[in-house]
What we know:
Layout: H1 6-12, H2 15-33, E1 44-47, E2 55-57, E3 73-75, H3 91-103, E4 109-113, H4 116-122, H5 133-139, E5 142-145, H6 156-164, E6 169-172, E7 176-181, H7 184-206, H8 216-230, H9 233-249
Parallel strand pairs: 5-6
Antiparallel strand pairs: 1-2, 1-4, 2-3, 4-7, 6-7
Helix pairs in contact: 3-6, 4-7, 5-7, 7-9
Amino acid sequence: MNATTASEIQKLVSAEEWQLRVDLAACYRLVALYGWSDLVFTHISARIPGPEHHFLINPYGLMFDEITASSLVKVDQACNKLIDSPYPVNPAGFVIHSAIHAAREDAQCVLHTHTRAGIAVSAQQGGVLPISQQSTFVLASLAYHGYEGVAIRDDEKARLQADIGDANFLMLRNHGLLTVGPSIPDAFLSMYIFETTCQIQIAAQSGGGELVQVNPAIVEGVGHASRVQTGGMGGKFVWPSLLRKLDRLDPGYKE
Length: 255
């Protein structure tokens, strides 16, 4: 099917999918705005509700601040485009995102970044250290996946799935950060916390002094606190304010 404009896409998809497209395009714009993008590389995907496991991913070749609701590419688990697009899908992005969407029914959104702070911490043997309030939220649901080169081989999928398990934060060693969430706002808020955690860690280590670590008992109990403090907060409080910010800057993501 050939469809390129917002009005044409809207005729082909449900109202629910169109809203998902708007939110995902907004997420791409926000990642660019906060400085987490890596030119045209890395990806954010969103699973479309339904048994087919179809999902939306970025058109390879567009900068994140160019992405719109109608330009997102709809694919199935075999990376077949379900609505025609002039843009390809990055194979490395597809392997990672399709693997997690297939294994995690609870993960509507998968968000992956290559930030300097994230990669720097991923290269440290100790990984995320319990030295900030933000880090305790990450440590409550954190997993690690060893580096296997550019993720283009299907055989890596099983290891990705096993490593992430039911965690919401995944540190890809020597590679970057990944979060999952039951919604796009939740995945974005988790990445904000994850990225901030890494920036704080690198800044604290650069001071050269001995670091004070959070009491392990506090870290252990933070899982409950995170559910109380951030459960639903992404969609209820943070996301609407972020959309208002985008609308003031450029509402073009909705097209």
